[in-house]
Design a protein that fits this description.
Elements lengths: L1 H9 L4 H16 L3 E3 L15 E3 H7 L4 H14 L3 E5 L5 H7 L4 E6 L2 H14 L4 E5 L2 H11 L5 E4 L5 H14 L6 E5 L5 H11 L6 E4 L3 E5 L9 E3 L19
Parallel strand pairs: 3-4, 3-6, 4-5, 6-7, 8-10
Antiparallel strand pairs: 1-2, 7-9, 8-9
Helix pairs in contact: 1-4, 2-3, 4-5, 7-8, 8-9
Length: about 250
Amino acid sequence: MYEFVDFIFRNKLNKDFEKKIKIERIALENTDQKIEVLDLGAGSKSSKTSKTDKISRIAKTAVSGKLKSLWLHNICAYFKPKYVLEMGTSLGISAAHLAQNATKVISLEGNPAIASQARKVFKNLGQENIEILTGNFDETLLECLKKNELPDIVYLDGNHTYEATLRYFNQLISSRNEHEMILIFDDIYWSKGMMQAWEEIKQHPDVTLSIDIYYFGLIFFKTNTVAPKQYTLVPANWKLWHIGFRPVKHG
């Protein structure tokens, strides 16, 4: 457990990839191009009601930040999965990080216009191991589970509602057939509904280990760990004494 968590928090990106992904982020955040809005999920807390939106706004508010992207990269770097399934492509930044250490990534996206922009990012990065399927998650997820081999890692970053999160979780565990699948839930503190869903998922009898690293909740079904079953972990540099507070001394 220590080795895994320490790796997530401390491992760094390859310098060449880090440079390339930085260029893509800057380009997305500074473009004036607009695309059609089609949100099939819970939306973003800063989303607009107009039928079009700027790519730059999406890049600044709805795309995984550098730290979250790094942690996703590191999770795959540690496990080196053959197949990763992502639910919620957005502009492709998170999929690009996942794909660095995976043989194949299939990413599900509800908005065809956003998927088109993500494909441009993958092309610029020279990543040919990422495939995007567009459509409603309720349809594309079942399609993936039926037509493809079972994923080793699933990153759920799409419909952030209590009902949808539990629905996708149940679909995944009912299809895994003892497959050693790892689930990564994004934004587990995004809303009361997400927090409730996360609490219920942790208590599922098939879950042998859960790890809360604030941005993500990780679920494991097969582990050799004895106890505790649930971990809540924070990087050392997030501890209070690193922002002016000091730990209380006893004795």
